[in-house]
Design goal:
82 residues, mainly alpha, 5 helices, 0% strand, flat
Length: 82
């Protein structure tokens, strides 16, 4: 759905982020802390995906924008013809 309706997907993501921020009330996001500080299977999966486009976890976390990943993935596909 997000691929077919990127504008709607972005609007929903922004609404979700605002909702989470309101719920947290200025407190740090515990999910982000877990991802940053631990070696959860989820993090290892993300690291594997990032490696596929030439990013390390450390590089990604400095600027974790979806558009950044998408651009690198598009470049990878163009190089490999897939």
């Amino acid at each position: 759905m997000a691929d077919r309706e990127p504008v709607i997907a972005e609007e929903l993501e922004e609404k979700l982020m605002r909702f989470v921020a309101r719920k947290l009330g200025g407190r740090p996001d515990p999910m982000l802390r877990q991802i940053q500080e631990s070696q959860l299977p989820f993090r290892r999966r993300i690291e594997s995906i990032l490696e596929g486009v030439g990013l390390s976890w450390e590089a990604w976390i400095q600027n974790p924008l979806r558009e950044r990943y998408d651009t690198l993935e598009d470049e990878r596909r163009a190089r490999h013809g897939s």
